[in-house]
Amino acid sequence: MSVRTAFFISDGTGITVEAFGAAMLKQFAIPIRQVRIPFVDSVDKVYQIIKQINQTMETDGIKPIVFSTMATPEVAKVLHDNVKALHFDMLKMIVDPLEKELGMESNHYVGRFSDTAQSKSYQQRIEAINYSLEHDDGQSSRNLEIADVILVGVSRSGKTPTSIYLAMQYGIKAANYPLIPEDFERHTLPPALKEFRSKLFGLSIDPIRLSEIRNERRPGSRYADLLNCREEVAAAEAMMRREGIRWLSTTTKSIEEIATTILQELKPDRLGTESA
Question: How far apart are CA 200 and CA 145, in angstroms?
Fold first, then answer.
């Protein structure tokens, strides 16, 4: 099957349109080459992009797929009228019906998200990222009382990427703390975590997958040995059940799915704060 090229074009960063378009394309079992092109905010720039897309059409011998969010109508029209591609103007598809329903025109503000750096939610995300980095892998037990969630689990079960994702996307102050053999021998939580039991959420993983991940980092070590991984995972899950800690297996789940489950279970107060 031929690889299909998908372009994600925006007058902003293009992150949003790429996330949406990529999610739509995942519904189809076809190979996709993704190209994100940000900051296309003038007619001159859009003509350059049209040339690139049309050249791709000639090279691939098949129409590229284009997802775009262009706030300026003139720029959006030039793209739509001249591009040789299957084109989805995401703003037109959504904004036009909204204008009709609300009885008003949108402001067509280019780079609408550029002012988020001044917003409360943006500052919360920056603070949360700094907090999560400081409290990664049990580096610090200072200020755990202000954590929104504390992730626990064996090493390489997905705690770090999940905590960073929660911080970046939701402004959640997520600490993460490894469960180690000494904890299993004591049959109790690390002392620093005991008073924060209500904030704990556990991550587990299939031992075979854990062994594969650890072998990438420390091949041939006891740390990566399958038997050791089985023992650690079993001990960690037993501790979570004993301590009444909610947990899930990360084996087949994306970071987005893991984070969503955590937020649904713990419902941090921070999600209810004003975002503007």
Answer: 12
